Amino acid sequence: AQTVTQSQPEMSVQEAETVTLSCTYDTSESDYYLFWYKQPPSRQMILVIRQEAYKQQNATENRFSVNFQKAAKSFSLKISDSQLGDAAMYFCAYRRKKGGSEKLVFGKGTKLTVNP
Amino acid sequence: DVKVTQSSRYLVKRTGEKVFLECVQDMDHENMFWYRQDPGLGLRLIYFSYDVKMKEKGDIPEGYSVSREKKERFSLILESASTNQTSMYLCASSSRTGLYSNQPQHFGDGTRLSIL
């Protein structure tokens, strides 16, 4: 079974600085999807960024980018120019592609604090 | 935008009660999911449904059941609530993914359920 590990339960960053959140996963499959979700204190989970394993190019969405290292099974999220509104729980998630499975496997989350 | 609506933000029930958590989505999504979220444990899948009247067990189905009589509505049922079911419950929906499609899940605001 696939597993997702977020080794940093909590992180903090100064406003305008850059922070990287770690995520590793375990799978025997060669093609799959990876996601980062954000859950602000208001609780609605929203998608931040997604990556397809067969694409070597790292995904970017404005100030958010990933460092996808397929061989190392690592999928870290970099937030540049951190803003107060980035404070949230961040969850890394994996979805297999084979068989069109719809299920996500989530990590336990990293709580990000942004200091003014 | 996709709207996933959970019927209650906060709910307090007593041990042994039958509890219904309702979720409605407005985007004609085929897939719907119920998760529970606990500190330090991340999101764990309880049940999901990929079509009307279809359901599959997730990772922690014990003590729960679900109902999907209409495409837009997915209900989570606690047959006889127990204190260890006190948790945050999140509903999500997504469109059916093909083998080469990468549709994310969209989440509701969550229901904070307390069992006394």
- The fraction of residues in strands of chain B falls at over 45%
The end-to-end distance of chain A, rounded to whole angstroms, is 41 Å
Helix content of chain B: under 10%
- Secondary-structure element order of chain A, as H and E? EEEEEEEEEEEE
| Biggest beta-sheet profile of chain B | 7 strands, mixed
Structure classification of chain B: mainly beta
* Total strands of chain A: 12
Distance between the termini of chain B: 36 Å
Would you count the extended β strands of chain B for me? 11
Q: Spans of chain A of 5+ residues with little confidence (pLDDT < 50)? A: none
Total count of helical runs of at least 4 residues of chain A:
0
Mean pLDDT of chain B: 91
Oligomer: heterodimer
**Structural category of chain A:** mainly beta
**Large-scale geometry of chain B:** globular
In terms of DSSP E residues, the strand content of chain A is over 45%
What are its keywords?
heterodimer, A: 116 residues, mainly beta, six-stranded mixed β-sheet, four-stranded antiparallel β-sheet, 0% helix, 52% strand, globular, B: 116 residues, seven-stranded mixed β-sheet
What report would you give on this structure?
The complex is a heterodimer of chains A (116) and B (116). With 116 residues, chain A is mainly β. Chain A is built from no helices and twelve strands. Chain A has strands at 3-5, 10-14, 19-21, 24-26, 32-39, 46-52, 60-61, 64-69, 74-79, 88-96, 105-106, 110-115. Chain B is mainly beta and 116 residues long. Helices cover 0% and strands 52% of the residues of chain B. Chain B contains no helices and eleven strands. In chain B, the strands form two sheets. In chain B, strands 2, 4, 5, 6, 9, 10 and 11 form a seven-stranded mixed β-sheet that branches. In chain B, a hairpin with a 3-residue loop joins strand 4 and strand 5 (42-49). The termini of chain B are far apart. The interface between A and B is medium-sized, with 23 and 28 residues.
